[in-house]
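input
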Amino acid sequence: MSVLKKEWWMERVPLDYEKAMGIVRDAFIKEPIPVHMKKWYYAMGATPLILFLLQVTTGLLLTFYFIPSPDMAYESVRHIQQDVPLGFWIRGLHRWGANLMIITVFLHMIRVFFTRAYRKPREINWILGTLLLGTTLTMGFTGYSLTYNQLSYWATTVGTNLVNQLPLIGHWLLRFMRGGEEVSANTLTRFFVLHELFVPSILFLLIVGHIFMIHLHGVAELEGHEGEGYYAFYPDHFVKGVYITLFLLVLMSTLAILIPPGIGIHADPTQTPMHIKPEWYFYSIYGLLKLVPLWLGVYLVLAFLIVLVFWPFIDDWFRAKWPKAPIGYVLGSATAVLALVFTIMELVAK
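output
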């Protein structure tokens, strides 16, 4: 058939294929990667991207059966988990993939912070990375709320109440997320649209921007180890990505089978549970809010986020004032330890 011939396609799509392949070859296949990236803990950046693609795939499969309404949401999740062939596996992949994506984004940002890969000229990419972290956490929050069980319903109520404490835009944002003053059917519909369309779209654009900036400046070399050598993206780094993908699929499948996500008890808006906790990735914030007044906790978290986003410029100011003081290491280590302590305290608390 003529449609299978190269000439047929070249006549109908008259691109300069040699030039296009040259761009792909230079931008991806032959892209120089610093030798320190051969160590897996320096190559965590690709893992969230792989998990994002897996999340999109499993999420789309789940939408074939999920019904975003208060009457049917919980039953549709139960149907997926118990009746749909391999439904428990797909849902398990999606649930564990979300947790692993958040973990790997955290680990990647910690690595970038402590290796100071955010410094000039990569400040914009750090800002994109912090936005990626916030968007990933938003994906987790909106997705967790869709199960419409007792804990997710009340976690949504508490979470949106916290949004109401934000200065200037808090009440407007609460009404936007809930679709009114109270958590209702509108809330579930809006969270579904946010989780399935708006937030993934924003996440995709941020990922594209993040990768584009990496290609513009190249992968950051370790301070004090500049010029130690490079290797091509293909095949070594590409094959590493394949190995990571296979490992993640095996790990997620194992977790989905051995520790399948539960469905809990159907949401009851008239009965508040004794203990309401968010997902583990919000435990550090939850622990802080238990120790200080709500308004103060919200302002402290907001201040931390502002510092996090603009840290490269704050770090430049510190270096200009105290060139040899390890202020970044001290502040970063203290923040990581406090977050870990709060998280562990909530994990072991009854």
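quick obs: Strands lie at 32-34, 230-232.
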